[in-house]
Amino acid sequence: MSSGSRLAEPDTPLDPAVPAAGTEASCGHPDGVHATARIRATYNGRVTTLPQLRSDGPFHLRRMRTGGRAATVGIIGAMSAPLGGDRLALDITAEDRAELEVTTAAATLALRGPTTAPATYDVRLTAGEHACLRWLPQPLISAAGSNLRQTCTVNLAATSRLLLREEQILGRADEEPGHLVSRIRVHHAGRLLLDQHTAYGDPAPGWDGPSVLDGHRAVGQLLVVKPDLDVSRAPVLLREGIKDGCAVLAPLAGGPALLATAVAPASSALRELLDEALGHALATAGR
């Protein structure tokens, strides 16, 4: 999130018995920020409305002007986050037939902070029947000395649509990255569709080797889930052998879904690759 003054912790006491994965557990450090922002979108028969738009901690939520029936929410950073020891979460729901897009105003910068304890940043996405949910944040930057556990948990109904893009930049200019552990877990119609776990930066073994990033410092994923996707195609390799990175777009077993994974030397090249993969994915179905 963008830089700013640290806010005070909420007055409501936190239950230390709640697991850390839920992001609301106490980290045992007085400087850790605990915050959960919530977005809920519903369809009223004409347009998508936002009956719940709850900002918290570093997350300032703002509805953006759009045309048509969709709603768009921008997340503006109200403080520097995540720092070591923080427990941050976003809970985003598009109910039946709602169309919701959520993005961030700037890149999220993971920093070391006052403690070496890991920070957690959990995103929970839910889409109902015939709903459309687009999660399109700006990149996450893993700065030197940071320690972050990031998760994205998605629950989709059988007829819902999802566009998810996540980008990680490993280190700022001329610096080594921190330690970043990321997991994406997606359920579609009650069945597991994707469970991807990655770890970058020391002490993760082999993360910078030729079989993983091969010296690249930008990595990203693009997931498209649509009922009318053609998933019978073979995987598509984009820009094979090009020094500006490459990506592969492949169908996922068990669902109408395509996953692109890309690596690149910089964020601009990474975004170009993911945009190219999205173009290939949308060519198989109506937009």
TrEMBL record:
Report residue spans for region: Disordered. Answer: 1-32
**Listed GO MF terms:** nickel cation binding
Any single Pfam family the record assigns to this protein: UreD
Reading the lineage from the top rank, the first entry is Bacteria
Q: Which GO terms describe its cellular component?
A: cytoplasm
Its subcellular locations are: Cytoplasm
Q: Which UniProt keywords apply?
A: Chaperone, Cytoplasm, Nickel insertion
Record-linked HAMAP family:
UreD
Quaternary structure note: UreD, UreF and UreG form a complex that acts as a GTP-hydrolysis-dependent molecular chaperone, activating the urease apoprotein by helping to assemble the nickel containing metallocenter of UreC. The UreE protein probably delivers the nickel.
What the protein does comes down to: Required for maturation of urease via the functional incorporation of the urease nickel metallocenter.
Q: Which family does it belong to?
A: Belongs to the UreD family.
Q: What name does UniProt use for this protein? A: Urease accessory protein UreD
Organism equals Streptomyces atratus
